[in-house]
Queue: 3 jobs
Job 1
Amino acid sequence: MIYAAVMGYGTVGAGVVQVLTMNRDEVKRHTGEEIAVKYVLDLRDFPGSPVEKILTHNYEDILNDPEVRIVVETMGGLRPAYDFTKRALMAGKHVCTSNKELVAEHGVELCRIAAEHQVNYLFEASCGGGIPIIRALNASLTADRIEMVEGILNGTTNYILTSMAEEGKEFDDALREAQKMGYAELHPEADIEGWDACRKIAILSSLAYGQHISYKDVHTVGITEIDAADMTYAKAAGCKIKLIGRSCREEKGVSILVEPMMIGPENQLYSVDGVMNAVFVRGNALGDAMLYGSGAGSLPTASAVCGDVADCAKHLNKTIRTGLTEENASVLPAGNVPGRFFVRMDGDAGKAAVLAGAGGVMRLPEFPEEFAFFSEQMTEEELRTRCAAFGNVRKIIRRG
Ligand code: HSE
């Protein structure tokens, strides 16, 4: 029997206890040992719940119990998760987490501490919920040189954008529903301002390119400015609006950004709707591959955490290399990432037509006071400078 402890009995923590109980035999089939949860740490009480008898409010119970070999951190946030994780690793306990904030901020250090103490710090659930993208990058694709990573990495915003596009829902209603279903972060700004997706693309890109990319260097735009008119234009153009994280290995460094993008059916991410996430990678040997699955929610995220728990059980006395390194990547300035853009503006449509690509200028009867177009390939800086000569820009959205 291998004993684990779960810190934080929220949406994901409760899912972990449920999966380890419900799939006990499956886990044992893979690890050769039964895994039992000995403690659940939380500030709250859960009278009448299945964890009532193993609940503790005292972290030291877990730290000082030599029988506990694996600690699951599903508390979220930086404090006290950082201190609890660090102390557990230093005490020779493996730690598995879904906490992307902590991995993005301190992952490099925590992996180093884990290696120094011959244990593991595993974080599959930190990116893409239940999608096993981190294990794919760290194990399956280690012989490839990854050139690009692109994904829909936040379930809440994808759920909101899908509801707005398909059901004409207002932003606030769609957000409330995502919160009710347990997808959203405690503070939904992290979802809607793009910070959650930003941390995830920084983690995935660091693994993919073998150099550390700080989430602070990722140019990030959220979805709060997307309105019903943008949705109408997108539909008229046969496109959808998605919050996309994208990074590419360039000659002089890594370009990386998170932005709402207008994408057409030619993009593999076009049909990724609702709470689903997908990550697309391009390797020099593999070519293109995409992983698709539930990006948020209790059981899907718990599935990823429990996969890590099982991996720790299989490697109790060995550190698995995670691919996070101390060496910093050179991140290129976001203003220099060229692309095509969807532009809404008022002013001189005839003159602005010189900026439009083959599609020319769009005019929709619903919005008689403005026009729109898709630009040719250029940087956003260049586009803004050129648009200024023809009128007032209402909105710019990258064409993905
Ligand atoms: N709030 C996150 C999301 C949870 O909506 O994707 C999973 O990381």
Note: The mean pLDDT is 95.
Job 2
Amino acid sequence: MQYTRALVRPPSSNFAEGLTSSGEGPPDIARAIEEHRAYCRVLEECGLEITELPADPRHPDGCFIEDTAILMEHGAIALRPGAPSRVGEVASVMQALRSQFQEVAQIFAPGTVDGGDVCEVDGHFLIGLSSRTNELGARQLARLLGDLQCTSSIVDIRGSRLLHLKTGLSYLGNSCMVVSEDMPRVPELSQYELIPVPAEERYAANCVLVNDRVLVAAGYPMLAGLLKARRYNVVPVEMSEFRKMDGGLSCLSLRL
Ligand code: CIR
């Protein structure tokens, strides 16, 4: 799929008040804002036009905008994040989406789905059941995707150490999937060629294919080398401050 647009939201001044289990200490806000700018520049270099929502101090995790929606050429689905502090992030995203999509479907309570648990693989969607995405939400999403002529499978990652499905895997096209060793080897993955991420680089398993490039977190040379050897055009992106808040590359944008 050729992406042309992305929706982003920069970190707010109280970004450090967001949720995290990383134990890596508080993020440096100025640096986080600079890293976010650099991330947007990379998306622009990939050919995407960026729409930026204003930073929202009511929601310190709001820059992780991927968790709030799923975008497809023929429809959008507003999600319902599993962390109560994040549910309010969706309203402003929905408002922005309404100007771009005729209809925006929605996940309803008590269903919860975080976008980080949804991985599109050539029109098929893997939906992770996690501590954030519950069974009701996953089933609602599968139905809504079906209405949009998309198939899906539910993959249970509860019991793993992964926050989200895409903390543990990324789809890079041509049936190739980057997977960390934390990702349970479920039957749903058996049809893909798996590129294992070295254990010490597990954070980098969340990488993103954007048109002809693969964005990989900077500082993970083994995965970058593996991908370059496979002729991927690897672009390193500094993520140090987002990592402190459990955020990966994919979660900083909604791409279309
Ligand atoms: C959270 O715990 O919800 C945020 N601090 C991090 C969310 C990262 N989202 C993602 O990987 N899709």
Note: The chain has one domain: 5-18+28-255.
Job 3
Amino acid sequence: MAQVILSNFTLFADEKEIQKWRLFCTRPRGSNFRVLLVKLRDGNVEMKSKVYKIATEIMTGTGENLFNYIADCLAEFKKEQGLEGKDLPLGFTFSFPCRQNGLNSASLVTWTKGFSATGVVDQDVAKLLSEACKRRNVNLDIIAVVNDTTGTLMSCAHADSNCYVGLIIGTGTNACYMEALDEVELWNGDKGEPKQTIINMEWGAFGDDGSIEDIRTDFDRELDKITLNQGKQLYEKMISGMYLGEISRQAILKLAKEKLLFNGVVSAELQKPWAFESKFLTDIEKDVSTDGLVCREILRQLNCRDTMEDVTVVRAICSAVSTRAAKLVTAGLAAVIKKMGRKTLTIGVDGSLYKYHPRFHPLMDTFTRELVPEARVKYMLSEDGSGKGAALIAAVAVRLTGK
Ligand code: BGC
């Protein structure tokens, strides 16, 4: 039996938690991280987990505070599981762009998704966490630092050996895939068998060099202006859960200001950045009734005096924003599938938007068939895949090193 405790620093959106968020704000509120206790026995995976909230102040404060907070949560979790004092191996899912220096060392390249904690960029995040654990007297041995895409690929490949791509469509978006070493010009590591490696594409940054300017809209540009990482992660900002609600709000606001919605009355609530949450968009799309009651209720909360036509327009905006996101993700995947040249392939997927949005998966299926008709592609949802995968990696490493 391998026992792995894992701090999954994945920014997924927990539905119940989101419901508790206050409605109006001037920046997206907080984030979550998840701690999992994973037991592997005879190929079966048994998990216990707990979600911890990260307040915006911690996301944007000092790195020391952020890592202290994670260490405190790990201590609490260990205590609750009766594991106090036990020295456990830890797989750390860190869902941000990193330079991987080794299995248990990765330096943060830049923050994304509303984080800006100071003193972390260019630092080894495993070291920062390990120092925080020492400060808090938490016994943990960081065995692996893993991106969430890699974790998802690993956990899905554990269940389906035809899985070669890991995809996240949650608060942020990114994908990784298996690549032959000969194709990786920058590879200067071990050249022995198996001659392949996982490439974390960090595709959220696609377009930061200006290459997708022709498909960005004024709404995307307005959204970018109110983010902490302006001009960065432009592809991610057109796709992922953190941003779709705000893009929709920008479009609704413009039509209201042009007197094409709500009789030209623009409520104070509608003018607040981030007031239209991505969860609203998902809920509106889940409601297939002709009268659009859910949309109506949300507009009421935003103090927008709507007519039936307004409801129809707002629903159409939500639908256009999520359809565009699904098309863009599939376009990225189509390029990867063509590059890999496989006839059949499974793509492991994790992330709240993919999980909770009613049309995302069907839309991706349709667009995949259009863009790569020659390949048979299966999308495999992986609940907590990013965390489970990091635990698997840590468990294998422990077995190989005999620690
Ligand atoms: C990060 C990636 C991560 C993705 C999904 C992006 O903002 O740069 O490292 O995989 O979010 O969580």
Note: The pocket of beta-D-glucopyranose is lined by residues 11, 95-97, 112-113, 147-149, 168, 170, 172-174, 202, 204, 233, 236 (CB under 6 Å).
